[in-house]
Design a protein that fits this description.
- The structure is a homodimer of 411-residue chains.
- The first copy, chain A, has 411 residues and is of the alpha/beta class.
- The first copy, chain A, has two domains: 3-245, Carbamate kinase (3-Layer(aba) Sandwich); 249-402, VC0802-like (2-Layer Sandwich), CATH 3.30.2130.10.
- In chain A, 34% of the residues lie in helices and 26% in strands.
- Chain A contains eleven helices and 20 strands.
- Chain A has helices spanning 16-31, 46-57, 63-87, 119-126, 152-164, 197-205, 213-221, 276-286, 315-329, 356-366, 390-400, and strands spanning 3-8, 35-40, 92-95, 102-104, 113-116, 130-134, 137-139, 145-147, 168-173, 194-196, 226-230, 238-241, 255-259, 262-271, 291-296, 303-311, 333-337, 340-346, 373-377, 380-386.
- In chain A, the strands form five sheets. In chain A, strands 3-6-2-1-9-11-12-10 form an eight-stranded mixed β-sheet, sandwiched between helices. In chain A, strands 13-18-20-19 form a four-stranded antiparallel β-sheet, with helices on both faces. In chain A, strands 15-16-14-17 form a four-stranded antiparallel β-sheet, with helices on one face.
- In chain A, helix 1 (16-31) links the parallel strand 1 (3-8) and strand 2 (35-40).
- In chain A, helix 1 crosses helix 3, helix 2 (46-57) runs antiparallel to helix 3 and helix 8 (276-286) packs antiparallel against helix 9 (315-329).
- The first copy, chain A, is globular and about 75 Å long.
- At the A-B interface, helix 1, helix 2 and helix 3 of A face helix 1, helix 2 and helix 3 of B.
């Protein structure tokens, strides 16, 4: 007898048949006596279809109207899923983001949730109904429809779970949990029975696309227990835990994340004086280019080399911007490389264990892989290497840290 | 400088190209200095697509969820049209039924409008924006999404025009006005420059499908001047006037309506005693069968014949119900005919002119057409004839009442 918020993404509700399968699944939970709030995305393909219509009309569609348009995708799904539940004798009622009063700010197409009024949901649950809520959307103070941005349905689910103080927020996806790394790259990648929020954040931002990073932050902030499961396969999935709850010894490394979408830029021979970093990154930021890693080494002489990485799509634009900046600063040279990849090892365990970084560098050296850039945080070590070595590096690290030996189920 | 409510139906907004053509048209009106509120339907085919999805899940979809589902159709159109207007430098803002506070009762799938709060629209208009409103939908007191039933976008337009005290409500369709009869049956059918509300009501209920009958009633009740026009052809269309405004002499007959969808049932030899009509029609009504014409002639002896018409789809069901009733009443016989058609002449002018009915009967007699049933009201005369004579009858009447000679433009 728990209160569970369940979120099913676009693929899980992509056809009428799948919506019916989700209804069967939800009904099963109801029959076990649980109270269920279901959050759904648009049927897969629908959001893109709608965006396509908009783009036929406006190259840069009016954000307010874009939200009115794409929010219909989830509205279709909530109605169909509620029908499927009612048809199964499992009373259900659908709500749009606005109807269930998911109040957001007014930043159309990427609004942030400010508060949720859970009264409607509570009274439906009390009357034995399943509450079906449209993910990804809300309403601002003035009554305008807003959306949370792509993948925002996860955030909706976590926010509802937080508002309702749910026992668990279950995110159903097309994978059966969070893996030690991408199984397409490493055959014996293992499902993690549990992972901490911090690790999950690092994994997500580094390219493991299982969960929206915002939803993980949200879950951490409001202590919402989050579980990733497969929509149509049985299994316990991966539980995302608060480190504080965790009395077991942490494994050294929980996973290996990687990202092919980066490019590296270096300004050489920059005068090593205060304020130079902001002089280099200021114009980049004003050009709306997002920067990932930033590395500046201690200087020899009176100059230094300044390196950062950007999304590969922004590579050419960044080079242009940098050339101008370099001239102003009297830097020697601008060099760049867009054939790179970033590989990171992530694990809360490394905080208390020395030598994790050097074990990583050793493993790469054994394969003859040159490390171009290193960056570290409390619970991760990232390196930039030539893209061609990516798979080799991930496999070597997976094996070196014995990730293929992880087993067990979440508590 | 007028305030105009314009309604574009599903065919008029059926593709991105058509939505753009509608935007061009609306922009033209803005440039003439008019304030414009646009009401749109779902893109043609969309509502049926959504209903199809629902029917895959539930044979009789939950009405509340059906409204959540189908109301997305118009929501897509308002967003796209607003984008198209913005793209043309014509500021626009979209509103769902709920957002513009079209408050309805809670009769899902066929709700009735109770009131409209026009403040949002007024302030947008004052700021120079075109207001784009989703037709066909509203919201009940509890915040549930409702729909007005098929064709309800006309009703939305008229209701908005009434609330805003608009100078005119223009209904854009795929015909360029209201015709003296169906041009597919009579080659030289003419567009009526104007028609009274009462005539329009009779024409609509008798099968001329240009406007939703509820919207015409609504327009009459709130004195909203209504005009039917073609979406993509220039022309003054047909103005639907209040008879009171009309100082010209009315034409005798404005149009000829007809209906092939009826079937006729007669109970013969019914005892002619008080209450017999309700004894016959009570069971029909309880079987949810709608009755159109009802005719009972003066009796000879102590029995009478009782005739009524129903929709052709209800013919078999009606016969069944009647057989049982006839037995109870001790009636002689039940006979029926589903190969009939109803033809009506409509015109406010006939109120003050004797002889219209007999002119009608003469015209039919000249063609050898037997009249099975006659029914009259203040402004119409309807006859039931064998279906095979329908086209012949309509042409003969069109010519007899000189409807091919109607010309002129609305004032």
């Amino acid at each position: 007898m728990a209160l569970i918020v369940q979120k099913f993404g676009g693929t899980s509700v992509g056809t009428v048949e799948r919506i019916q399968a989700v209804a069967d699944k939800v009904k099963g939970f109801r029959e076990q006596g649980h109270d269920i709030v279901v959050v759904v995305s648009a049927m897969s393909g629908e959001t893109n279809r709608l965006i396509g219509l908009a783009n036929e009309i406006q190259a840069r569609p009016t954000p307010r109207e874009m939200d009115v348009l794409v929010s219909t995708g989830e509205q279709v799904t909530i109605a169909l899923l509620s029908m499927a539940l009612n048809e199964r004798g499992c009373p259900a009622r659908s709500y749009t983001g606005g109807q269930v009063r998911i109040r957001t700010d007014s930043t159309h197409t990427k609004a942030r949730i400010k508060k949720i009024d859970e009264e409607h949901m509570r009274s439906d649950l009390a009357e034995g109904r399943v509450v079906v809520v449209a993910g990804f959307q809300g309403m601002d103070e003035a009554g305008n429809i807003t959306t949370l941005g792509r993948g925002g349905s996860d955030t909706t689910a976590v926010a509802l779970a937080a508002a309702l103080k749910a026992d668990e927020c279950q995110i159903y996806t097309d994978v059966d949990g969070v893996y030690t790394t991408d199984p397409r790259v490493v055959d014996n990648a293992r499902r993690l029975p549990r992972i901490t929020f911090e690790e999950m954040l690092e994994m997500a931002s580094l390219g493991s696309k299982v969960l929206q990073i915002r939803s993980v932050e949200f879950a951490g902030k409001y202590n919402v227990p989050l579980r990733v499961l497969h929509s149509f396969q049985e299994g316990p999935g991966t539980l995302i835990t608060f480190e504080e709850d965790n009395e077991m010894e942490d494994p050294l490394i929980s996973g290996i994340a990687f990202n092919r979408d980066e490019a590296k830029l270096t300004v050489k021979g920059v005068p090593d004086i205060p304020g130079v970093a902001s002089k280099i990154l200021g114009p980049i930021s004003r050009a709306n280019i997002e920067v990932d890693m930033i590395i500046q080494n201690v200087s020899e002489d009176k100059t230094t080399d300044f390196t950062f990485t950007v999304h590969r799509n922004d590579f050419d634009h960044s080079l242009e911007v940098l050339e101008a900046t370099a001239k102003e600063l009297g830097a020697t040279q601008v060099v760049g490389d867009n054939k790179i990849a970033k590989v990171s090892i992530v694990g809360v365990g490394m905080r208390s264990h020395a030598g994790v970084a050097s074990a990583m560098f050793d493993a790469l050296a054994r394969e003859g892989i040159n490390i171009q850039v290193i960056s570290t945080s409390e619970i991760k070590v990232s390196v930039v290497i030539a893209e061609k070595y990516l798979e080799l590096a991930v496999r070597a690290l997976h094996s070196a840290f014995e990730l293929d030996k992880i087993t067990g189920e979440p508590e």
